[in-house]
Each structure stands twice: as C-alpha cells, then as structure tokens.
Design a protein that fits this description.
By secondary structure, this protein is mostly helical. It is built from 18 helices and two strands.
C-alpha cells in the first residue's frame, strides 16, 4: 500500500507543479478559445491542462517502475507500455484539438486507433463472467471490438461531462478511488497478480486528478481541455479492461470453490458487464441522453449543445459549486455502492444505506435555491455568501416587530440597531482579513 501511495503522491505533485507553467504556456500559445453559447464561464480561460496531467502519468509510471514491489508489474506484463502508448496518442490528439480544433469524426477515428494500439500490445478483454453460464471466452474479433467500444465510450463519457469547473476531474477521481478499492482487494485480498496493473493505473489516475483539481475548482484558472478529459477517460478504461480481461477466473475459483460462486462473486462489479459505465454511470447516462437528444432534433450526435445534466442543474437554480457537489454525490453513491455490493451482495444494510443516501440526494436536488445564512454573531467568521444582507436583516426584523415578537422595542430603533450591527460585522470581517 505504501508504494501505491507514493506513486499516487508523485503523480499528484508533478501534475500540480506542472499546471502553473502549462497555464502560462497555454496563454502564450493562444489556447484560449472565445466563450461559446453553451459555456458557463464568463472569461476566456486557457486550456491544455492535459499536458500537466500527462506529465503526472509519466512520472507515476516511472517511479512505479523503480519500486521493489511494483516493478514486477512492468516485468511480467506489457500493459503499462500499452497504456502509455495509447495515452500518448490520445493526448497528442487532445492537444491538437485544444489549440486548433479537430473534426468530431477524426477524433472518433483517432480514439479507435489508440484503443487498437493497446489491443495489439495485449491490453484487451479475454473473457467475461455471464450469469447462468459462467466464464465465457471471447474470440479475437469479439475481444477487439469490445475493448475498443469500452475505450471509446468511456473517453467520450468523460469528455461530455467536462462542462463545469472541477466536474470531470472530481468525478473521475471518485470513480478511480472506488476502482482502486476493488482492484486492491482482488490483488492483495485474493493474491491475484493479474489485478496489479489495474491497481497501479487507478492509483496514478487518482494522483493526476487530485493534482489538477486545485487549479480547476470554481473559479477555474485553467481547463484540462480534450487533452485532459480524453486522457483520464482512457486511463480509467484501461484499468477496467485490465482487471476485466486479464484476471484469470480459475484463480478465483480455487478460492471460492466453484465456477458458479466465482461468477456470482465477479458479476456485481461487471453490472451491466461494463465496469467503466458502473463507476461513471452519471457521465455515461449524460452521454446516452445527449446522443438521443441530438439525434431526435436532427443534429449530429457529436454536435455541442447546452442540454447536459450539469447545464440543467444550473437552469433550475443551482449555483455552480452546488451543481458540481450534487454530481460528485451521485457519482460517489453509484461507484462506492457498486463496490460495496461486490463485497457483500446479500447485505441488507448496504441496500438500505444506498436508499437512504439516494433520498438525501433527491432532497438536495429538489432544493436548488436553499441558501443557508449564518447567525449574526458568526458573520465575521464565514464567507460573505453566508452573511445576511441589509435587506434580509431588515425584512426579518420587520416581520418580528409585526408579529409582536419584539415587545417594547420601537421599530425604527430596532432597524437602526440592525444597521449598526451589520456595519460593525463588516468592519470586523475586514480587519480579520
């Protein structure tokens, strides 16, 4: 675990430190497109954040290759090289798109080529656990098609959801944490060495996202662009493909005792036989809805619009930060719920917990204009958005006086006292800053 944490920290540190210089380079290179109708930011913001994230990926793989317990991943498997090859191609495509723009069909073709390069180097799905049938081996053609489909779908799902500050990096980070927990359990809990590459990939992906998030939270100073969103989508898909197609079911059968138990053990995480869509179900649902919506309207499935889930959250009244937190919440609920279900699918408490958290999420979703205010005595210690304005304070005092809740107090005197307290709170807050 310590070596995984070291790799994670290295990837996060390199990504964080590179993002500042990359931002200056993006500004100098003119990678700051004009604001479009579907954009939610108000000022031109530099892209190319994927350059820093790719640096974090390379640094994480380089450090892991020299650690005593992780270097065996590079010696016994060709998957890290396959990941780096595919990531390099998709990253280069993203950089070109962030600077000059690339046609949607060309991007789709390049994504398929990057997935094909990984397949040629051994990173592919070899078999699948099917309920009622057990383990089903795939032919080379089926294996290639399924792997390419997983990579392309995951890349575009992450790319589609990258519409708010910190949204894509945070959601992928949540998915990567859940995936790391599952892969680490398979690797160390069951001693399945084939799960080691997926565990490493997810640890590096967590570091890449955590290193970029401080620069990308609202208000963002830099965007990851397609060079970043497609990159982290490919890394997530690579880890899922690795543990799906490379982990030998017979090794788990030796521990569980029967093929049927092995299938039931593995199936919860594969629901619906596509691990990336289980862990990033929200972006995947957004992808499907976007394709249906655009096709229904007679548009290209790749045509940009302002109908994504995060846009709808803003339209119904949620703030930028609140919309991002809601998307985080649902992503975490689905991702960690799937992992918990894979550990103990018969536990009633897991189901009840998921139902209870879903109810909490629905309440938060249906209260878009809820804006808590701090007590008057605490206003000097909280951000300005949680302080009462003069109008709100006057309205509250007037209502109290009209209701007779402030007997013996003259209305004008009470309002003057409120003004004095608000001014004093403002002075205190200013002096504390």
């Amino acid at each position: 675990m310590r070596e995984y944490l070291l790799t994670l920290c290295v990837a996060a540190a390199v990504t964080y430190l590179l993002t500042g210089p990359v931002r200056k380079f993006a500004i100098a290179a003119g990678a700051m497109p004009e604001i479009r109708d579907r954009d939610v930011h108000r000022e031109p913001t530099p892209r190319l954040g994927g350059i820093a994230m790719f640096g974090g990926l390379c640094a994480g793989l380089l450090v892991a290759a020299h650690l005593s317990n992780l270097k065996s991943v590079f010696e016994l498997s060709n998957e890290p090289r396959a990941l780096l090859s595919g990531a390099g191609l998709i990253w280069l495509l993203g950089v070109l798109d962030d600077k000059w723009g690339v046609d949607a069909l060309i991007k789709l073709g390049a994504q398929m080529i990057a997935a094909g390069v990984m397949v040629l180097q051994g990173l592919t799905v070899l078999w699948l656990p099917i309920p009622g049938k057990g383990i089903v081996a795939l032919s080379p053609v089926q294996s290639t098609l399924l792997t390419v489909a997983l990579v392309v779908i995951t890349i575009n799902a992450v790319n589609f959801v990258d519409g708010l500050d910190g949204l894509a990096s945070g959601m992928v980070c949540i998915a990567a944490v859940a995936f790391f927990m599952y892969a680490y359990r398979i690797w160390y809990g069951y001693g399945i060495e084939a799960a080691a590459p997926a565990t490493l990939f997810s640890a590096i992906l967590i570091g890449m996202c955590l290193g970029f998030l401080p620069h990308n939270l609202h208000p963002a100073r830099i965007f990851m662009g397609d060079s970043g969103s497609m990159l982290i989508g490919l890394v997530l898909a690579s880890g899922a493909i690795s543990i799906t197609g490379q982990t030998d079911p017979d090794a788990i059968t030796n521990l569980t005792g029967s093929t049927r138990d092995t299938t039931h053990f593995m199936v919860p995480v594969y629901m619906p036989l596509l691990l990336p869509l289980t862990l990033i179900a929200i972006p995947a649902a957004d992808l499907v809805l976007a394709i249906v919506r655009r096709t229904w309207n007679g548009q290209s499935p790749f045509a940009a619009d302002r109908g994504h889930l995060h846009h709808r959250l803003l339209d119904i009244g949620h703030s930028h930060s609140r919309a991002v937190l809601i998307m985080y919440f649902w992503s975490a609920l689905i991702a960690f719920g799937a992992v918990a279900f894979s550990v103990n699918s018969s536990s009633l408490w897991i189901v009840l917990g998921i139902v209870m958290l879903s109810a909490i999420g629905l309440i938060a979703l249906l209260m878009p204009r809820f804006n808590p205010k701090a007590p008057r005595w605490a206003e000097s210690f909280v951000p300005p958005r949680y302080r009462r304005t003069r109008v709100e304070a006057h309205a509250a005092a007037s209502a109290a006086i009209a209701a007779g809740e402030a007997p013996g107090v003259n209305g004008a005197t009470a309002l003057s006292e409120i003004d004095r307290q608000l001014v004093e709170a403002g002075r205190t807050a200013g002096s504390s800053r």
